[in-house]
Each structure stands twice: as structure tokens, then as C-alpha cells.
């Protein structure tokens, strides 16, 4: 993202002729650190416009660039004589013997599931099933790891808590139906998973989905 914008600052400024007034509060809203902002200014050679700042915010987010987790992900082993396809393609593939390989993918759809529980969860499952079959594999199973805020009346002490519990209940119902709906339409069974409820997940649930598929090694796309 940085190099593409830096290559044509004139084109970018033509879209936004007046740079936005960038404040520390605005950077915080966009989850852009002072160091990152300095890199943006250096790449553009000028103050970014508001839309440009938004683009950097999205492209440098955890969702798009693994902003905070990349350093930890790099510590995981990714090479072995059994690894047919490591990180970089739609799904990872492991040699399981007798000419067969196992394709798998994990994805989180946390914030989308908070905004629109059914569609957020359904598209999370759909995305990883897509990544399996685009490698030439046949999806066989789905599993989920879910985290939600409290959904029982025992957690209610005032009207604000009552509203939060109702919101959590709505999220749980939508997420469960979204996962089931997409998996059922696709004909892929959900073999299991785990769910926990904690107050810290009231603002944003965790919806992590896992898909598994099989493919002949000589048919991998």
C-alpha cells in the first residue's frame, strides 16, 4: 500500500485536493501510531488526506496485515517434508499419506459478527470453505471456537446490563444460525467446537471458524 501511493502522489492529491487536518485524536480513531503516521507522510511526501488516512488505517490493520500478531505467527513452524503448501495460498496443505493430502483453513469474523451476527458468521464459514475448494480439495468438516458476553439474567444489575445481555443474546442466536445455515446449505457437517461466555466479550465476540478438506496430491490446484 505504501509503495503504490508513494509512486503517484499527484494522482492521490488530485482525488483529495485539500489535506485533512490530522490530529492525535484523529490518528487514534484510525488506530495509526505516530511512527506509522511519519512513514505515511514520508511515503506520500505530504500530509495525507482523510480518505488516504482511512485507506492506510484499513490496509495496515490487524485484519489485513496481521499488525500485532505477525511477530508471533513467524515463530510457528511452516516447513517440513509433510508440508505441501505453507502460508501464502488460500489454504495450508499437509501430506497425510497414500497419495492424499489434508487442506485446512482458520478465519476469524469477530467484528462483522457483532455488527450483523448471522451474515458475519455465515460469511466467515463461507470464506474458509471457499479457500479449501479453490485448492482443489473437497471440504469435509467445520469446527468453531466462540466467545460471547453473558446471556443470562443473573448478570443483570441495572437497565444498562439488561440491554447488554439482550444484545449478547441476539449475537449468540445470529452467530449460531449463521454458522449452521451456511454449513447446512453447503452440506458440510460441523463436527464440534467450544464456546465460553465472559463479560469482556460483550463489546466484540470472537467467532473463529476452522474448515478441513481432503485432496489427492496430484489434483492440488
Compose a concise summary of this entry.
The protein has 221 residues and is an alpha+beta fold. It contains ten helices and six strands. It is flat.
What this model shows, in words?
- The chain has helices at residues 2-7, 9-15, 24-29, 34-44, 50-59, 62-65, 70-73, 110-115, 117-133, 159-186; strands at 83-85, 92-97, 100-108, 138-148, 190-197, 206-216.
- By secondary structure, it is of the alpha+beta class.
- A six-stranded mixed beta sheet has the order 1-2-3-6-4-5.
- Helix 9 (117-133) runs parallel beside helix 10 (159-186).
- The longest helix is centred in the last third of the chain and has 28 residues, at 159-186.
- The model is unreliable at 1-18 (pLDDT under 50).
Highlighted features:
flat; disordered N terminus; 6-stranded mixed sheet; 221 residues; alpha+beta; 10 helices
Adjacency order of strands in the biggest sheet: 1-2-3-6-4-5
Number of helices: 10
Rg on CA atoms, Å: 21 Å
Topology order in helix (H) and strand (E) letters: HHHHHHHEEEHHEHEE
Q: Tell me, rounded to a whole number, the average pLDDT.
A: 87
Give the CA-based shape.
flat
What are the segments in which pLDDT stays under 50 over at least 5 consecutive residues? 1-18
How much strand content do the residues show? 15-25%
State the helical fraction.
40-55%
* Main sheet summary: 6 strands, mixed
DSSP strand count: 6
What class, by secondary structure content? Answer: alpha+beta
Distance from N terminus to C terminus (CA atoms, Å) equals 28 Å
Amino acid at each position: 500500500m505504501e509503495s503504490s501511493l508513494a509512486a503517484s502522489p499527484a494522482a492521490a492529491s488530485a482525488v483529495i485536493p485539500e489535506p485533512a487536518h490530522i490530529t492525535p485524536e484523529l490518528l487514534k480513531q484510525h488506530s495509526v501510531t505516530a511512527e506509522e503516521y511519519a512513514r505515511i507522510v514520508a511515503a506520500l511526501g505530504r500530509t495525507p488526506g482523510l480518505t488516504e488516512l482511512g485507506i492506510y488505517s484499513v490496509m495496515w490493520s490487524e485484519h489485513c496485515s496481521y499488525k500485532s500478531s505477525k511477530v508471533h505467527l513467524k515463530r510457528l513452524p511452516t516447513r517440513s517434508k509433510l508440508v505441501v503448501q505453507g502460508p501464502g495460498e488460500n489454504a495450508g496443505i499437509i501430506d497425510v499419506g497414500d497419495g492424499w493430502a489434508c487442506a485446512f483453513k482458520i478465519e476469524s469474523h469477530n467484528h462483522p459478527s457483532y455488527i450483523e451476527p448471522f451474515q458475519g458468521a455465515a460469511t466467515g464459514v463461507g470464506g474458509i470453505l471457499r479457500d479449501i475448494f479453490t485448492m482443489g480439495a473437497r471440504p469435509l468438516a467445520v469446527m468453531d471456537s466462540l466467545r460471547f458476553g453473558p446471556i443470562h439474567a443473573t448478570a443483570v444489575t441495572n437497565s444498562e446490563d439488561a440491554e447488554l445481555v439482550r444484545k449478547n443474546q441476539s449475537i449468540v442466536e445470529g452467530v449460531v444460525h449463521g454458522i449452521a445455515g451456511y454449513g447446512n446449505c453447503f452440506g458440510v457437517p460441523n463436527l464440534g467446537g467450544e464456546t465460553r461466555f465472559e463479560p469482556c466479550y460483550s463489546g466484540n465476540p470472537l467467532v473463529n471458524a476452522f474448515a478441513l478438506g481432503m485432496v489427492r496430491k496430484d489434483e492440488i490446484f
